[in-house]
From TrEMBL:
Transmembrane feature ranges: none
Residue ranges of every copy of the AB hydrolase-1 domain listed in the record: 60-297
Family matches, as Pfam families: Abhydrolase_1 (PF00561)
Protein name per UniProt: AB hydrolase-1 domain-containing protein
Length: 319
């Protein structure tokens, strides 16, 4: 094991310990008769018998769906401690990320949504789920909400470009002389990783040593790279001649965006809000880029908590 891999492994080991400390366990969930395997952190309880078993309490269910970068474990590390006490929290890796994989040929957001629902059903979760989706995970949340309205009660979108077009990211790609979004989202070099970091967050990005960057590339980006490129190629949102997006049936939804998001512009946030209707609030977090749940977790967690515990969305505001 190289020095860079040691640092990355230590970081991930620490994060996983935090999940376990808050009563969660990593499970490999098989669906499609074993054709698809999804790694998911699930609530775990110890009854009086002392035998550990999947938590089936009456607490409300929250499903966190991660962005295209990294995996579920790392994306939601700042939310686990805030919500596992009052909610049954589920944190999966989307298919072809982290520990999840499939031999099926489908690659659309609807396919991901279908897999997430099958996973929840396999874990005996059948209704009244709040889905929190960031970026690409928000696209999956959108299709879950449309295709399974009886399952999804509420949905929160974070920097979710449902109304992207084929030209939406051309200026950003041109900045780095890229021809395709996969070059930005799936870097192969240290320079490419730093390019991604520079536009993904509004915080100052310190220059990690090259050996750490190489380990990050190997751990998060090299695995199932071909399948991830296929996911980008076959996305419905933003595809040429894509049909109009369906309307959602959920009464409660919320949008959170970073004021300085360079990857999905605030214009896309306004288009999503218009599409979802007057019952949906838009909260824009100051001094945040594409990952407000990572860049300002305390404010994000407070807004999410209010959304989860209230009968209506929180008031729109800049925070």
């Amino acid at each position: 094991m190289g020095v860079g891999s040691f640092f990355v492994d230590m970081k991930m080991s620490y994060v996983k310990q935090q999940y376990r400390a808050h009563g969660m366990k990593s499970e490999m969930v098989e669906v499609d008769d074993g054709a698809t395997v999804i790694r998911c952190w699930v609530p775990w309880q110890q009854p009086e018998s002392g035998v550990w078993s999947a938590g089936q309490s009456d607490k409300p269910v929250v499903l966190f769906l991660h962005d295209f970068v990294a995996d579920g474990t790392l994306n939601w590390e700042n939310q686990i401690g805030a919500f596992t006490k009052d909610f049954n929290v589920y944190v999966p890796d989307l298919v072809f990320f982290g520990g999840s994989s499939s031999t099926r040929s489908e690659r659309t957001e609807a396919f991901q949504a279908e897999c997430m629902v099958k996973m929840l059903h396999a874990l005996e979760v059948y209704n009244e789920v709040t889905v929190v989706g960031a970026g690409y995970g928000g696209l999956v949340a959108f299709w879950m909400s449309h295709l399974y309205p009886k399952l999804v009660e509420k949905v929160l979108f974070i920097a979710t470009g449902t109304h992207m077009s084929r030209t939406s990211q051309k200026p950003l790609l041109a900045e780095f002389d890229y021809d395709h979004v996969s070059e930005l989202l799936l870097p192969t070099t240290v320079k490419g990783l730093r390019n991604l970091a520079s536009v993904a967050t509004s915080k100052r990005v310190y220059r990690l040593p090259k050996f750490v960057c190489k380990a990050v590339l190997q751990y998060f980006f090299d695995k199932q790279r071909h399948e991830k490129i296929d996911l980008l190629e076959k996305m419905v949102c933003g595809a040429q001649k894509a049909p109009p997006l369906p309307q959602l049936m959920q009464e409660k939804s919320l949008i959170i965006w970073g004021e300085n998001d360079q990857m999905t512009s605030l214009e896309l946030a306004l288009k999503l809000k218009l599409h979802l209707g007057n019952g949906t609030d838009l909260v824009v977090l100051n001094k945040c880029g594409h990952f407000p749940h990572l860049e300002n977790p305390s404010t994000f967690n407070r807004i999410l908590s209010n959304f989860l515990n209230s009968s209506s969305s929180c008031d729109p505001a800049h925070r």
